């Protein structure tokens, strides 16, 4: 009984493979691909060309990864810059006030020194 079931399983698998091959062949016949294009595609799948394609793919992945990292860093820097600006706003306001007071005190000092020099 086991022999019959394994034989049937093998036959079913063989039928599946044949159907897949026929379907693939039918699909290739329907596609507008000429023999020249098929030869080029086959050449791309040769081992030496696969190495080149792999190197190109790794290089492209590295470039994409680097670009993503740079854009992430720029976004982070912009966010941090905005946050720092918000935090420094009160400090800038206080600095402006102190500079205005300093200018006012200088003017008063100059006026007092002119008065003293006039009295002498």
Structure description:
It is a single chain. The protein is mainly alpha-helical and 120 residues long. Helices cover 93% and strands 0% of the residues. It has helices at 2-30, 35-44, 47-119. The chain is rod-shaped, with a radius of gyration of 40 Å. The model has no long low-confidence stretch (mean pLDDT 80).
Strand content: under 5%
Total number of β-strand segments? 0
- Main beta sheet: none
Q: Supply the number of helical segments.
A: 3
The low-confidence runs, each spanning 5 or more residues with pLDDT under 50, are none
Domain module tally? 1
Q: Kindly report the average pLDDT value.
A: 80
Helix content: over 70%
Structural class: mainly alpha
H/E element order: HHH
Shape: rod-shaped
Assembly status: single chain
Q: What is the radius of gyration computed over CA atoms, rounded to a whole number of angstroms?
A: 40 Å
Distance between the termini: 133 Å
């Amino acid at each position: 009984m086991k022999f019959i079931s394994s034989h049937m399983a093998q036959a079913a698998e063989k039928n599946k493979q044949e159907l897949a091959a026929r379907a693939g062949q039918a699909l290739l016949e329907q596609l507008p691909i000429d023999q020249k294009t098929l030869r080029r595609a086959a050449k791309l799948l040769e081992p030496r060309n696969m190495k080149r394609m792999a190197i190109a793919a790794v290089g492209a992945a590295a470039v994409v990864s680097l670009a993503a990292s740079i854009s992430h860093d720029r976004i982070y820097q912009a966010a941090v810059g905005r946050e720092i600006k918000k935090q420094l706003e009160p400090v800038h306001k206080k600095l402006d006030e102190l500079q205005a007071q300093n200018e006012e005190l200088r003017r008063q000092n100059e006026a007092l020194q002119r008065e003293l020099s006039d009295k002498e």
